[in-house]
Amino acid sequence: MNRILTFSFILLAGVGFISTTLGQEANRTVTIQSLDASDNLYLISGGGGHTVMLITEKHGVVLVDTKNPGWGSSITNAVKAVTEEPITTIINTHAHNDHVGSNAHFPNITRIISHENTRNSIAKSPSAQGDGHFLPTETFQDKLAIFDGRDQIDLYYFGSAHTDGDTIVVFPELKTAHVGDLFARKAPPYIDRGNGGSGLSYPQTLSAAIAELTDIERVIPGHAPPPKGSPMRAWLTWDDFRNHFHFTNDLVSSIKAAHAAQKSVDEALDTFMFQDNYPDYDLTNVRSVTEVLYDELNN
User: How far apart are CA 299 and CA 286, in angstroms?
Assistant: First the structure.
Protein backbone atom coordinates (compact mmCIF):
# COMPACT_ATOMS: atom_id res chain seq x y z
CA MET A 1 0.00 0.00 0.00
CA ASN A 2 1.42 3.38 -0.99
CA ARG A 3 1.60 6.34 1.35
CA ILE A 4 2.41 9.99 0.76
CA LEU A 5 4.58 11.93 3.18
CA THR A 6 5.16 15.64 2.74
CA PHE A 7 8.34 17.24 4.08
CA SER A 8 10.67 19.31 1.93
CA PHE A 9 9.94 16.76 -0.77
CA ILE A 10 7.23 14.26 -1.71
CA LEU A 11 7.82 10.60 -1.07
CA LEU A 12 5.75 7.92 -2.76
CA ALA A 13 6.57 4.73 -0.92
CA GLY A 14 5.54 1.11 -1.14
CA VAL A 15 6.74 -2.07 0.45
CA GLY A 16 10.36 -2.59 -0.53
CA PHE A 17 10.63 0.21 -3.06
CA ILE A 18 10.09 3.88 -3.68
CA SER A 19 9.82 6.22 -6.59
CA THR A 20 10.24 9.84 -5.63
CA THR A 21 11.33 13.18 -6.95
CA LEU A 22 13.09 15.46 -4.51
CA GLY A 23 15.76 18.09 -4.22
CA GLN A 24 16.96 21.04 -2.21
CA GLU A 25 15.69 23.55 -4.78
CA ALA A 26 13.97 23.63 -8.15
CA ASN A 27 17.17 23.27 -10.16
CA ARG A 28 18.56 20.52 -7.95
CA THR A 29 15.88 17.87 -8.42
CA VAL A 30 16.76 14.19 -8.50
CA THR A 31 14.64 11.08 -8.86
CA ILE A 32 15.27 7.93 -6.84
CA GLN A 33 13.99 4.54 -7.97
CA SER A 34 14.60 1.03 -6.75
CA LEU A 35 15.77 -1.68 -9.10
CA ASP A 36 13.88 -4.94 -9.07
CA ALA A 37 17.20 -6.74 -8.52
CA SER A 38 16.87 -6.00 -4.81
CA ASP A 39 15.25 -3.50 -2.50
CA ASN A 40 18.67 -2.36 -1.31
CA LEU A 41 19.89 -1.05 -4.69
CA TYR A 42 18.64 2.30 -5.95
CA LEU A 43 19.20 4.61 -8.89
CA ILE A 44 19.42 8.37 -8.29
CA SER A 45 19.04 10.18 -11.60
CA GLY A 46 19.31 13.84 -12.54
CA GLY A 47 22.11 16.35 -12.07
CA GLY A 48 24.71 14.53 -14.14
CA GLY A 49 25.69 10.90 -14.45
CA HIS A 50 23.56 8.26 -12.77
CA THR A 51 24.32 7.71 -9.08
CA VAL A 52 23.77 4.23 -7.68
CA MET A 53 23.10 3.74 -3.99
CA LEU A 54 23.64 0.39 -2.26
CA ILE A 55 22.38 -0.06 1.29
CA THR A 56 24.73 -2.69 2.70
CA GLU A 57 24.04 -4.96 5.64
CA LYS A 58 27.21 -4.08 7.58
CA HIS A 59 28.92 -1.09 5.96
CA GLY A 60 26.37 1.69 5.59
CA VAL A 61 25.51 3.25 2.24
CA VAL A 62 27.78 3.07 -0.79
CA LEU A 63 27.41 5.66 -3.56
CA VAL A 64 28.66 5.10 -7.08
CA ASP A 65 29.32 8.55 -8.62
CA THR A 66 28.23 11.90 -7.20
CA LYS A 67 26.99 13.96 -10.19
CA ASN A 68 27.89 17.56 -10.99
CA PRO A 69 29.15 20.01 -8.34
CA GLY A 70 26.36 21.29 -6.11
CA TRP A 71 24.22 18.16 -6.16
CA GLY A 72 25.47 16.61 -2.92
CA SER A 73 22.52 17.80 -0.82
CA SER A 74 20.05 16.35 -3.29
CA ILE A 75 21.87 13.02 -3.20
CA THR A 76 21.91 13.12 0.61
CA ASN A 77 18.17 13.88 0.74
CA ALA A 78 17.48 10.98 -1.59
CA VAL A 79 19.46 8.62 0.63
CA LYS A 80 17.68 9.85 3.75
CA ALA A 81 14.33 9.24 2.08
CA VAL A 82 14.89 5.48 2.20
CA THR A 83 17.39 4.75 4.99
CA GLU A 84 18.91 6.09 8.18
CA GLU A 85 22.19 4.32 7.42
CA PRO A 86 25.14 6.72 6.96
CA ILE A 87 26.94 7.21 3.66
CA THR A 88 30.35 5.62 4.21
CA THR A 89 31.88 4.95 0.81
CA ILE A 90 32.01 6.57 -2.63
CA ILE A 91 33.13 4.86 -5.83
CA ASN A 92 33.89 6.93 -8.93
CA THR A 93 33.53 5.27 -12.33
CA HIS A 94 35.76 7.87 -14.03
CA ALA A 95 37.06 11.41 -13.67
CA HIS A 96 34.46 13.57 -15.41
CA ASN A 97 32.93 16.33 -13.34
CA ASP A 98 29.36 15.11 -13.88
CA HIS A 99 30.33 11.90 -12.08
CA VAL A 100 32.70 13.15 -9.36
CA GLY A 101 31.65 16.78 -8.96
CA SER A 102 29.88 16.41 -5.61
CA ASN A 103 32.54 14.27 -3.92
CA ALA A 104 33.44 17.38 -1.93
CA HIS A 105 29.95 17.51 -0.41
CA PHE A 106 30.87 14.48 1.72
CA PRO A 107 33.95 15.70 3.65
CA ASN A 108 33.48 13.19 6.47
CA ILE A 109 33.74 10.18 4.19
CA THR A 110 37.17 8.63 4.48
CA ARG A 111 36.85 6.07 1.68
CA ILE A 112 36.57 7.22 -1.93
CA ILE A 113 37.65 4.58 -4.45
CA SER A 114 38.59 4.85 -8.11
CA HIS A 115 41.01 3.52 -10.67
CA GLU A 116 44.47 5.01 -10.23
CA ASN A 117 44.26 6.86 -13.56
CA THR A 118 40.95 8.40 -12.51
CA ARG A 119 42.48 9.79 -9.35
CA ASN A 120 45.35 11.26 -11.35
CA SER A 121 42.92 12.91 -13.77
CA ILE A 122 40.77 14.37 -10.98
CA ALA A 123 43.87 15.75 -9.25
CA LYS A 124 44.92 17.52 -12.47
CA SER A 125 41.48 18.91 -13.34
CA PRO A 126 40.91 22.70 -13.30
CA SER A 127 38.38 22.29 -10.48
CA ALA A 128 40.92 20.60 -8.19
CA GLN A 129 41.53 22.93 -5.30
CA GLY A 130 41.29 23.23 -1.53
CA ASP A 131 42.40 20.48 0.80
CA GLY A 132 41.73 17.66 -1.64
CA HIS A 133 39.16 15.81 0.45
CA PHE A 134 37.17 15.18 -2.74
CA LEU A 135 40.00 13.06 -4.19
CA PRO A 136 39.87 9.26 -4.12
CA THR A 137 41.64 7.89 -1.07
CA GLU A 138 42.05 4.36 -2.44
CA THR A 139 42.89 3.22 -5.97
CA PHE A 140 43.31 -0.04 -7.85
CA GLN A 141 44.88 -1.21 -11.12
CA ASP A 142 42.92 -4.14 -12.55
CA LYS A 143 40.45 -5.48 -9.99
CA LEU A 144 39.38 -4.73 -6.45
CA ALA A 145 36.80 -6.48 -4.26
CA ILE A 146 35.34 -4.72 -1.24
CA PHE A 147 33.12 -6.23 1.46
CA ASP A 148 31.72 -9.76 1.21
CA GLY A 149 28.52 -11.74 1.07
CA ARG A 150 25.46 -9.81 -0.02
CA ASP A 151 27.43 -6.56 0.39
CA GLN A 152 30.25 -7.50 -1.99
CA ILE A 153 31.20 -5.04 -4.71
CA ASP A 154 33.75 -5.85 -7.41
CA LEU A 155 35.57 -3.14 -9.36
CA TYR A 156 37.10 -3.91 -12.75
CA TYR A 157 39.32 -2.04 -15.18
CA PHE A 158 39.75 -3.35 -18.74
CA GLY A 159 41.68 -0.61 -20.51
CA SER A 160 41.37 2.77 -22.17
CA ALA A 161 38.06 3.67 -23.81
CA HIS A 162 35.90 6.64 -22.76
CA THR A 163 38.84 7.70 -20.53
CA ASP A 164 41.88 5.82 -19.30
CA GLY A 165 40.28 5.04 -15.94
CA ASP A 166 36.81 3.64 -16.69
CA THR A 167 35.64 1.34 -13.90
CA ILE A 168 32.85 -1.21 -14.10
CA VAL A 169 31.20 -1.61 -10.71
CA VAL A 170 29.65 -5.05 -10.22
CA PHE A 171 27.18 -6.09 -7.53
CA PRO A 172 27.64 -9.88 -7.90
CA GLU A 173 24.85 -10.96 -5.59
CA LEU A 174 22.45 -8.86 -7.66
CA LYS A 175 23.97 -9.74 -11.05
CA THR A 176 24.00 -6.02 -11.81
CA ALA A 177 26.75 -3.73 -13.10
CA HIS A 178 27.10 0.06 -13.21
CA VAL A 179 29.19 0.57 -16.35
CA GLY A 180 29.48 4.36 -16.20
CA ASP A 181 30.15 6.05 -19.52
CA LEU A 182 31.71 3.00 -21.11
CA PHE A 183 28.07 2.59 -22.13
CA ALA A 184 26.45 5.93 -21.46
CA ARG A 185 23.46 5.41 -23.75
CA LYS A 186 22.57 3.84 -27.08
CA ALA A 187 24.72 6.20 -29.10
CA PRO A 188 28.29 6.46 -30.38
CA PRO A 189 30.66 6.74 -27.42
CA TYR A 190 32.27 9.97 -26.33
CA ILE A 191 36.04 9.63 -26.32
CA ASP A 192 37.99 11.99 -24.06
CA ARG A 193 41.52 11.81 -25.40
CA GLY A 194 42.59 14.55 -22.99
CA ASN A 195 41.92 12.11 -20.15
CA GLY A 196 43.50 9.12 -21.87
CA GLY A 197 40.47 7.89 -23.81
CA SER A 198 41.00 5.93 -27.01
CA GLY A 199 38.61 5.11 -29.82
CA LEU A 200 41.06 2.62 -31.26
CA SER A 201 41.13 0.54 -28.07
CA TYR A 202 37.45 1.06 -27.17
CA PRO A 203 36.19 -2.17 -28.81
CA GLN A 204 38.96 -4.24 -27.21
CA THR A 205 38.13 -2.81 -23.79
CA LEU A 206 34.44 -3.69 -24.17
CA SER A 207 35.36 -7.14 -25.50
CA ALA A 208 37.61 -7.81 -22.50
CA ALA A 209 34.77 -6.88 -20.14
CA ILE A 210 32.37 -9.21 -21.93
CA ALA A 211 34.87 -12.08 -21.81
CA GLU A 212 35.46 -11.72 -18.05
CA LEU A 213 32.06 -10.75 -16.70
CA THR A 214 29.89 -13.76 -17.41
CA ASP A 215 27.21 -13.59 -14.73
CA ILE A 216 25.61 -10.17 -15.16
CA GLU A 217 21.98 -9.75 -16.14
CA ARG A 218 21.29 -6.06 -15.86
CA VAL A 219 23.26 -2.94 -16.69
CA ILE A 220 23.10 0.58 -15.29
CA PRO A 221 24.39 2.98 -17.97
CA GLY A 222 26.02 6.33 -17.38
CA HIS A 223 23.24 8.56 -18.69
CA ALA A 224 20.42 6.77 -20.55
CA PRO A 225 17.03 7.83 -19.12
CA PRO A 226 15.61 5.12 -16.85
CA PRO A 227 12.08 3.79 -17.33
CA LYS A 228 9.39 5.32 -15.17
CA GLY A 229 8.17 3.62 -12.03
CA SER A 230 9.71 1.71 -9.20
CA PRO A 231 10.88 -0.93 -8.96
CA MET A 232 12.20 -0.77 -12.52
CA ARG A 233 10.98 -3.93 -14.16
CA ALA A 234 13.02 -3.51 -17.33
CA TRP A 235 15.95 -1.42 -18.45
CA LEU A 236 19.24 -2.30 -20.09
CA THR A 237 20.66 -5.82 -19.97
CA TRP A 238 24.03 -7.44 -20.51
CA ASP A 239 22.83 -8.26 -24.03
CA ASP A 240 22.52 -4.51 -24.61
CA PHE A 241 26.11 -4.13 -23.43
CA ARG A 242 27.20 -6.83 -25.87
CA ASN A 243 25.30 -5.07 -28.64
CA HIS A 244 27.08 -1.84 -27.70
CA PHE A 245 30.36 -3.64 -28.27
CA HIS A 246 29.19 -4.76 -31.73
CA PHE A 247 28.05 -1.23 -32.58
CA THR A 248 31.29 0.33 -31.37
CA ASN A 249 33.41 -2.28 -33.11
CA ASP A 250 31.54 -1.76 -36.40
CA LEU A 251 31.84 2.01 -36.03
CA VAL A 252 35.57 1.98 -35.30
CA SER A 253 36.23 -0.55 -38.08
CA SER A 254 34.32 1.59 -40.58
CA ILE A 255 36.18 4.74 -39.55
CA LYS A 256 39.55 2.98 -39.79
CA ALA A 257 38.68 1.66 -43.26
CA ALA A 258 37.60 5.09 -44.46
CA HIS A 259 40.77 6.65 -43.09
CA ALA A 260 42.91 3.98 -44.76
CA ALA A 261 41.15 4.75 -48.05
CA GLN A 262 42.11 8.42 -47.54
CA LYS A 263 38.49 9.55 -47.44
CA SER A 264 37.61 12.85 -45.85
CA VAL A 265 35.37 12.86 -42.80
CA ASP A 266 32.44 13.93 -44.99
CA GLU A 267 33.16 11.17 -47.48
CA ALA A 268 33.42 8.66 -44.64
CA LEU A 269 30.07 9.72 -43.20
CA ASP A 270 28.42 9.18 -46.60
CA THR A 271 29.47 5.52 -46.55
CA PHE A 272 28.22 4.64 -43.06
CA MET A 273 25.05 2.53 -42.89
CA PHE A 274 24.57 2.06 -39.17
CA GLN A 275 20.88 3.00 -38.99
CA ASP A 276 19.85 -0.25 -40.66
CA ASN A 277 21.73 -2.50 -38.24
CA TYR A 278 21.26 -0.36 -35.13
CA PRO A 279 17.86 1.33 -35.53
CA ASP A 280 17.55 2.18 -31.82
CA TYR A 281 20.85 4.08 -31.73
CA ASP A 282 21.02 7.87 -31.77
CA LEU A 283 23.65 8.65 -34.42
CA THR A 284 23.73 12.40 -33.87
CA ASN A 285 27.37 12.52 -32.82
CA VAL A 286 28.84 10.11 -35.39
CA ARG A 287 30.70 13.03 -36.97
CA SER A 288 32.43 14.02 -33.73
CA VAL A 289 33.51 10.42 -33.06
CA THR A 290 34.81 10.14 -36.62
CA GLU A 291 36.83 13.33 -36.19
CA VAL A 292 38.30 12.07 -32.92
CA LEU A 293 39.27 8.73 -34.48
CA TYR A 294 40.80 10.44 -37.51
CA ASP A 295 42.88 12.58 -35.19
CA GLU A 296 43.95 9.53 -33.21
CA LEU A 297 44.85 7.66 -36.40
CA ASN A 298 46.86 10.61 -37.68
CA ASN A 299 48.95 10.62 -34.54
Answer: 20
pLDDT tens series, the chain, 299 aa: 222 222 233 333 333 444 455 544 447 899 999 998 778 999 999 999 999 999 999 999 999 999 999 999 999 999 999 999 999 999 999 999 999 999 999 988 989 999 999 999 999 876 655 556 689 999 999 999 999 999 999 999 999 999 999 999 999 999 999 999 999 999 999 999 999 999 999 999 999 999 999 999 999 999 999 999 889 888 999 999 999 999 999 999 999 999 999 999 999 999 999 999 999 999 999 999 999 999 999 99
Q: By three-state DSSP, how is residue 269 classified? A: helix
Q: The domain that contains 187 carries what CATH number?
A: 3.60.15.10
DSSP, collapsed to helix, strand or coil, labels residue 275 as helix
* Residue 74 and residue 101 in contact, taking contact as beta carbons nearer than 8 Å: no
What phi, psi does 130 have (nearest 5°)?
75, -150
Is 132 part of a structural domain of the chain?
Answer: no
Alpha helices by DSSP H, listed for the chain, are 72-82, 97-100, 116-124, 202-212, 238-260, 265-271, 274-277, 286-298
Q: What is the DSSP letter of 219?
A: E
- For 248, counting Cβ atoms within 10 Å of its Cβ (0-12 exposed, 13-18 middle, 19+ buried), the class is buried
For residue 77, being part of any structural domain is answered with: yes
